[in-house]
Amino acid sequence: MRIVQLTEETRKDILTQLLKRSPDSYQGYEERVAEIIRNVKENRDAAVFGYTKQFDGVEITAANVRVTKEEIDEAYATVDAKFLGVLRRSLANIRSYHEKQRRYSWFDSTDNGTMLGQKITPIGTVGVYVPGGTAVLSSSVLMNIVPAKVAGVGRIVMVTPPGKDGRVPASSLVAACEAGADEVYKVGGAQAIAALAYGTESIPKVDKIVGPGNIYVALAKKAVYGSVGIDSIAGPSEILVLADETANAHYVAADLLSQAEHDRLASAILVTTSETLAQKVSDEIEEYLKVLSRADIIRQSLDNYGYILLADSMSEAIDTANAIASEHLEIVTKNAFEVMMKIKNAGAIFIGEHSSEPLGDYYAGPNHILPTNGTAKFFSPLSVDDFVKKSSIIYYSREALEPVKDDIISFANAEALTAHANSIRVRFE
Q: Which of 202, 225, 311, 422 is 20 to 30 Å from 162 at the Cα level?
């Protein structure tokens, strides 16, 4: 893994390189995605089933696109009992964490006849996208559905690409059932996003779409935004480890590789003040690559977007971490909690050598659907807030309105909106 001395110039170069992974940098795909969306919008089921056959090699029809109770029962019979126990314990942790995020309506009244407030209402129908690909991500099923369920969403519709056998992987199906999905459909890609956004004969239109996916899914979510709500536009996975000379190189290397194995566009970065640690981590990575099953993918990822950055000071290292705004940030330093207080931009922060990133992926409870590509500067992890909407409540009695009417009329007249002013004036004529 390359070791680079951190300077202002190298930091800019690395940020530029990392941003090439953003969906905004894949304009060449947008026309194809737009074509898929247009086709689904016009031809509905026929388009969805055609793309499923073309891209997934599976014959899906109106008769089998929705997962049946029999398929769910078969999935439960197939899934290992030990795994089911693990999944349920993980689910309990995720639910417990997200229940603490619940917000409630509030109202504030005064003696002079006013009442102001905020009404919290769950979104009616949500579409959850769960990726397919080389890994079966039942953990993403839980992370998408549980906060929606906690928020009180009325109807949760999950879509996911079918396998070559035309079925949804058993572990994903069981996870969806345990988490509380109402319906599961065997469709993926941009066509699934379009189906959720506009509805087809078989797949219902939803109010909001959440969940990560490949570049086609990301661009499709971007394209349908406005017709429906979306959570964010996710890019490839990434990890940044912030470490000093106290860190365990064996652990740090393992944690970097835990994200690099996702795909060749994943990013793994170590920022450290210790040249000794930098070299040890580089050596450890080479040893791990001899035994890990996805070594080819990991090596491509590290060659493209893997860095060990040597900083002159912890202050410079922290500034770099904030500039990169990584999806996952591990802090393995002395005074790690003190360092954490100086972090402004990160999707999820893991503190200490035993808080490795997979703990958050699977089990601890916080959501693992996180902002990527520097968007942690303005986006947050998926949460209960993504599944509710807020309405302002305003009530004034005549007695409360009268002493402030002239202020409102003056404001309206200053903006040359005389009908606004008149709306207030007529009540006191």
A: 225
Give the DSSP per-residue string, 312-349.
SSHHHHHHHHHHHT-SEEEEESTTHHHHHTT----SEE
What amino acid is encoded at 44 in this protein? R
Q: State the catalytic residue, choosing from 284, 328, 353, 368.
A: 328
Q: State pLDDT tens for residues 116-162.
A: 999 999 999 999 999 886 667 899 999 999 999 999 999 999 999 99
Around 396, how many Cα atoms within 13 Å sit in the side-chain half-sphere?
A: 10
Strand partners, 306: 268
Distance CA 324, CA 268 (A): 12
Written as six digits, the tokens of 17 are: 């390189």
pLDDT tens string 158-212: 999 999 999 999 999 999 999 999 999 999 999 999 999 999 999 999 999 999 9
Could you tell me which of 129, 359, 167 has the C-alpha nearest to residue 251?
359
Q: Return the sign of the alpha-carbon dihedral for residues 70, 71, 72, 76.
A: positive
Active site residue 327: yes
Rounded CA separation 187/409 (Å): 55
Active site residue 328: yes
Residues contacting 107, CB < 8 A, separation 6+: 115, 116, 117, 393
CA–CA separation, 346 and 341 (whole Å): 12
* pLDDT greater than 70 at residue 25: no
Sign of CA dihedral 42, 45, 47, 51: positive
